[in-house]
Write a structure and sequence with these properties.
Elements lengths: L1 H17 E3 L5 E3 L11 E5 L7 E5 L22 H16 L4 E4 L6 H12 L2 E4 H8 L5 H8 L1 H16 L4 E4 L8 H7 L3 E6 L2 H11 L14 H20 L4 E4 H8 L9 H21 L1
Parallel strand pairs: 5-7, 5-8, 6-7, 8-9
Antiparallel strand pairs: 1-2, 3-4
Helix pairs in contact: 2-11, 3-11, 4-6, 5-6, 6-7, 8-9
């Protein structure tokens, strides 16, 4: 009952700003997209005899803000997976089948977040590194680097991205260095690219914890495992940061942690990060529609 009242109250606030209330009590409002693309939300009582409400969602600018999706001690009245599903239902029609390319440093969570996004959007998921491995008879990325060299791997990576750019309805986790070739951006910009921006310190901690055997670009110098990994990642980030900034949308875990009052970005769940990714994609689509 309280959740229903909260939804009704929120809906009426939005109706004053962006829409109108119909005679049957339902709320119809329009946002930043072209009107033929979407109806952002419709809230109505399910039956006169009940106090439950149903929420039908398409593409909307105003929704649950990312900063309220998860906090240390606050228990959200609606499960975060449900909020994620609602956000995906808002955005999916507006994607028009375009692929989503996740870019970012190694260890940034592209595969984990990508699988979550593909599930809620009813998209297929692909890992570009895994596709390269298939192209080279199942040889691991680390062994491809050893046997054939990095240029060979990068050529295969570009071939894979070219093929993917001709497809629809995929979420694609790209390799950390895919951004360094301008030709790869030509293919990725046929879809929507999202940069998962994770602080280097957090990346070094994650990678050191699981080991670096599968990371061919992590060359070792003298020192402990964390320090060696941190130094190499810092150098790679310095080389690639401008390229990552070419992405259509950016998910900054540092900014998310600050908004949520978290001291460590590792406290952010993959679901929360996926919700922020959808929010940033929505902002990109709104800006794209404005031109």
């Amino acid at each position: 009952m309280e959740a229903t009242k909260a939804l009704q109250f929120s809906a009426m606030l939005h109706s004053q700003k962006l829409g109108r209330t119909e005679s049957d009590g339902s709320l119809l409002k329009f946002g930043g997209f072209k009107e033929h693309v979407f109806v952002s939300s419709k809230l109505r009582l399910a039956r006169p005899s009940t106090r439950t409400a149903s929420l039908l969602v398409a593409c909307s600018r105003n929704n649950v803000p990312a900063s309220t999706l998860e906090s240390g001690s606050f228990q959200a009245p609606i499960d975060e997976k449900l909020i994620l599903k609602i956000k995906s239902q808002e955005i999916e029609p507006c994607l028009s089948g375009r692929c989503i390319y996740l870019v970012g440093m190694m260890g940034s969570g592209k595969t984990t977040v990508g699988k979550i996004l593909s599930h809620v959007l009813s998209y297929s998921f692909f890992d570009s590194d895994a596709l390269v491995e298939e192209e080279v008879d199942g040889t691991s990325v680390a062994d491809i680097f050893k046997q054939y060299g990095e240029p060979f791997f990068r050529n295969k990576e570009t071939e894979v991205l070219q093929k993917l750019s001709m497809m629809r309805r995929h979420v694609i986790s790209t390799g950390g260095g895919a951004v360094v070739r301008p030709i790869n951006w030509k293919y990725m910009h046929k879809g929507i690219s999202v940069w998962l921006d994770v602080p280097v310190e957090a990346l070094a901690q994650r990678i050191t914890a699981v080991g670096t055997d599968s990371r061919p670009l992590l060359h070792y110098e003298a020192g402990d495992a964390y320090t060696k990994t941190f130094m190499r990642l810092s150098a790679l980030f310095e080389e690639r940061s401008e390229a990552y900034a070419n992405a259509n949308a950016r998910v900054s875990l540092e900014n998310m942690a600050a908004k949520l009052g978290r001291s460590d970005v590792s406290d952010l769940s993959p679901t929360t990060i996926a919700m922020e990714a959808l929010e940033q994609i929505k902002d990109f689509l709104i800006g794209e529609d404005a031109y």
